[in-house]
Amino acid sequence: QLQLVESGGGLVQPGGSLRLSCAASGATLDYYTIGWFRQAPGKEREGVACITSSDGRTYYADSVKGRFTISRDNAKNTAYLQMNSLKPEDTAFYYCVAEQPRYAPTWTIVWNRAVEWEYWGQGTQVTVSS
User: Fold this and answer.
1) I need a labelling partner for 115 at 20 to 30 A (CA). Which of 32, 69, 97, 99 fits?
2) For residue 78, how many other CB atoms are within 10 A of its CB?
């Protein structure tokens, strides 16, 4: 059974950077498509980024394009979310998610839907504040 554990969250000033890590156990991460979601108080979970297992294609929410980068290191069984130029509105609980492979073009449509992802980590808090 795949298990995911996030780390790297914390308090950062606006304009700063953080790198979130998602360590996998129980299975090899390279088999799975990986994503990151976030949830701010009083808001729905929002898809932030995704990287597919089949071709490494990436998807980003419009709100983070150009600032966040998702990546994976299969040798370390770990995925990452590099977050630069952080804004107060990026404050949220961030979750690493994983899903088994599917027909690649499908991800274009469903990657940011929380119900499409089977495996979820416990999350890590990111707070952007001066």
Assistant:
1) 69
2) 19
Element (H, E) at 54: none
- For 91, the 3-state DSSP assignment is coil
Q: Cα-flanking dihedrals φ and ψ of residue 76, to 5°?
A: -95, 0
Question: Which helix (DSSP H) or strand (DSSP E) does residue 99 occupy?
Answer: strand 92-99
Helix (H) or strand (E) holding 66, with range, is: none
Q: Tell me if residue 68 falls in helix, strand or coil.
A: strand
CA separation for the pair 39, 91 (Å, rounded):
9
The token pair at 19 is 């790198």
How confident is the model over 13-39, as pLDDT tens digits? 999 999 999 999 999 988 999 999 999
The answer on pLDDT for 108 being more than 90 is: no
